[in-house]
Design a protein that fits this description.
With 219 residues, the chain is α/β, with parallel strands linked by helices. 41% of the residues lie in helices and 16% in strands. Strand 2, helix 4 and strand 3 (109-111) form a beta-alpha-beta unit. The relative contact order is 0.18.
Length: 219
């Protein structure tokens, strides 16, 4: 196991401290995380013949990171399709703000459909996995599980946001189903589950990126 890796609760404490002590709101951290994800996606697409991107955006902050990444990639001229796994009227901040931006910018999105995603896969070179982040602690089921199965059988590159969806952030175990990534871009600090048990097999190449935590927190 690598040194200086962090548990779910330790990451939550860091995020809380960033806001309470340094007034850095989650919206700013989400913006930085999404942009770093987009930069990594652009790097991965350099070696892909097909440049279209599928973004899977879940109901939490991980999905919000994916929406930010999609916005940047859209602005950089990449064709993409976002599949959302939440009812917009139930979305919470800061993800809801980024959903509204997607709508205003007319970035292509729709509610997830397995049939439509299968069609999109044929023309795509990269899937961005922003379904679930470190907060997931229950078995994956339903539409999300079906989406994971499609991702793992797609035969194209996969970039996971913070942690592969379906991997427990503390134990590294699979929560009934998980996405197998080629690369995982993780924010601020390495997460314990990326380096142990199934997590280390599913994370692929791990890139720890800076999203603007103060040096007092980063140590």
């Amino acid at each position: 196991m690598k040194k200086n890796i962090f548990s779910r609760q330790e990451i939550y404490a860091i995020e809380k401290r960033a806001y309470e002590e340094f007034l850095i709101p989650p919206l700013i951290l989400m913006e930085n995380a999404g942009r770093e994800t987009a930069i990594e996606a652009k790097r991965m697409l350099f070696r892909c013949r097909k440049k279209k991107i599928i973004v899977l955006a879940g109901p939490g902050n991980n999905g919000g990171d994916g929406l930010v990444a999609a916005r940047y990639l859209h602005c950089w001229g990449f064709p993409l399709k976002i599949f959302i796994f939440f009812e917009p009227q139930r979305a919470k901040e800061p993800s809801f703000t980024n959903y509204r931006i997607v709508v205003k910018m007319n970035i292509p999105f729709e509610l997830f459909s397995a049939e439509k995603m299968e069609k999109e896969i044929k023309d795509s070179g990269l899937i961005i996995d922003a379904l679930f982040g470190i907060g997931l602690a229950r078995p994956v089921e339903g539409l999300e599980k079906k989406a994971m199965e499609l991702v793992n059988s797609a035969g194209i590159k996969v970039l996971s946001v913070d942690i592969p969806s379906g991997i427990d952030a503390d134990s590294g175990r699979i929560l009934s189903s998980a996405i197998k990534a080629d690369t995982t871009v993780t924010f601020g600090f390495p997460k314990k589950g990326l380096y142990i048990n199934e997590g280390k097999k599913y994370a692929g190449k791990i890139r720890v990126v800076d999203i603007g935590y103060p040096s007092e927190i980063r140590g």
